[in-house]
């Protein structure tokens, strides 16, 4: 295989270089499309004072929620936090800093960061606590607030299929935050359900080009259901 091969054989290699105090951008929505093994490796590493940028913080015993158990997360930048009792407890006690961000704004912050755009104007949040202290500019008679882009030292994402060069395809709703998150990390690590050879993926179907990806690892996923609802 050529020097473009980005596959690593261990989770330790996948997350090499992550240290205390870094910012990590994580793909997924709820428990859908989350890089389960990479999160477990961060827990094993025991790194502290991390800032995580993710739609939410998993649940109490799964996803990013497991990093709250040893208080590895110092700050969460999220749009939804309602499924995690430990998160609520640490927020109310002041142990966890939380920056609530509208969902579409959060996605655009990641996308803009990956595109090299430092900030953008959006109407979302104007006139609410989200807009307090932010620059306001009027376009076509409507006020907009200035939101800054987000980047991180690491981005961790989950792919349905990835080739050895890092080209990725996400399956169905796992396309949620993964494509944007993948562009916004200085080091982007992909945990894939299946790794294929270069040329096996249809170029027109690729969601994340390998140019954004630094490492790829074969994952093994539990695919837990976040909230099971059954008919009576």
UniProtKB/TrEMBL annotation:
One of its GO terms (molecular function) is transferase activity. Pfam families: CoA_trans. SUPFAM superfamilies: NagB/RpiA/CoA transferase-like (SSF100950). Keywords: Transferase. Belongs to the 3-oxoacid CoA-transferase subunit A family. NCBIfam families: pcaI_scoA_fam. This is CoA transferase subunit A.
């Amino acid at each position: 295989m050529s020097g473009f091969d980005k596959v690593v054989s261990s989770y330790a290699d996948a997350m090499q270089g992550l240290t205390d105090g870094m910012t990590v951008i994580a793909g997924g929505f709820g428990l859908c499309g989350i890089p389960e093994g990479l999160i477990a490796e961060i827990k094993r590493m025991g790194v502290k004072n991390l800032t995580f940028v993710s739609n939410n913080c998993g649940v109490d015993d799964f996803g990013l929620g497991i990093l709250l158990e040893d208080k590895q997360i110092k700050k969460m930048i999220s749009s939804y936090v309602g499924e995690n009792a430990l998160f609520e407890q640490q927020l109310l006690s002041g142990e966890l800093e939380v920056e609530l961000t509208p969902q579409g704004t959060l996605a655009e912050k990641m996308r803009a960061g990956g595109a090299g755009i430092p900030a953008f104007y959006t109407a979302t949040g104007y006139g609410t606590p989200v807009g307090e202290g932010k620059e306001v500019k009027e376009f076509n008679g409507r006020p907009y607030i200035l939101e800054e882009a987000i980047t991180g030292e690491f981005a961790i994402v989950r792919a349905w299929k990835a080739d050895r060069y890092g080209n990725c395809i996400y399956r169905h709703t796992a396309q949620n935050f993964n494509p944007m998150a993948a562009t916004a990390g200085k080091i982007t690590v992909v945990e894939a359900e299946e790794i294929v050879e270069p040329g096996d993926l249809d170029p027109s179907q690729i969601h994340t080009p390998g140019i954004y990806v630094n490492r790829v690892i074969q994952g093994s996923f539990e695919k837990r259901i976040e909230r099971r609802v059954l008919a009576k």
